[in-house]
Amino acid sequence: MPKRKIIKFDEEKCNGCGLCIPDCPEGAIQIIDKKARLVSDLFCDGLGACIKACPQGAISIEEREAEEYDEKKVMANIVKQGENTIKAHLKHLKDHGEAVYLKQAQKYLKENNINVSLEKEIPGYSAKNDACGCLGSKIMDFRKEPKLSAGITKLGQKSQLSQWPVQMKLVSSLAPYFQNADLLIAADCVPFAYADFHEDLLKEKILLVGCPKLDDVEIYKEKLEQIFKNNDIKSVTYAHMEVPCCFGLLEVIKNAISMSGRKIPFKDVTISIKGEKIA
Fold it and tell me: What are the residue boundaries of the structural domains of the chain, listed by start?
């Protein structure tokens, strides 16, 4: 059974108020014995929409072995709860950038002749203005947007960043910008050391950033495996410093590619502490 993010309840803090239940249209939470319980791993998407509703701070997200989330089975459960629950679920998926699950949900509705449109049926929703609670982790794709002057240096260089977020811990493995992407994984010191980072390494690539010395590389391994399994990645480049600790992520990336079962071209780039590309 694979590991994935899933909600966790602190029984000592939970007072059984049930305020978390409306924010879980998937139906994964019930009040049992006066406590909120996760009744089905299958229905919990691990995005944590219920967390903000808990006045006791009793809900968190953990990473553990759990049954894979199944959007088709979730939809079968949701449609029984009526139109408003369907709307809430679709908006939930859209707000968190879960494009793959959203398409699966819409396909289920179409196959079962249930007419619920995002723009027409979700109050306040606009396709041009997704509302995610946290700007720091909201999925954004800049590739089709014109480069703004704020992203251009005095020397006329343009920022080549094409998506958000970039921190490996924050990205969703199902973010739409991963499909058919050339992926750049950069140790987080590299952009500071290498002056030509944007033009030479980042241009036309999707970026992931992490620190192989200070972060838990096991989390990175699992995240990368999911990204490689769930998307058609065209190539992977790992850019890191020449210091020994930066090489810790090299084998993790290679192993994640191998575990995905896909043949993905891989390139290793080393930057010196003086800012020179040496390999």
Answer: 3-65, 71-121, 140-271
pLDDT exceeds 60 at position 130: no
Nearest to 223 by CA among 166, 180, 169, 163: 169
State residue 151's pLDDT score: 52
* Res. 32 pLDDT band, cuts 50 70 90: confident
Q: What is the pLDDT of residues 152-170, one digit of tens each?
A: 555 667 899 999 999 998 8
Report how far residue 212's alpha carbon sits from residue 188's, in angstroms, rounded to the nearest whole number: 9
For domain 3-65, give the CATH number. 3.30.70.20
- CATH code for residues 140-271: 3.40.50
C-alpha 141: how far from chain center: 13
| Degrees, nearest 5: CA angle 99-255-171 | 30
User: How far is it, in rounded angstroms, from Cα 37 to Cα 249?
Assistant: 37
Measure the CA–CA gap between 241 and 259, rounded to whole angstroms: 25
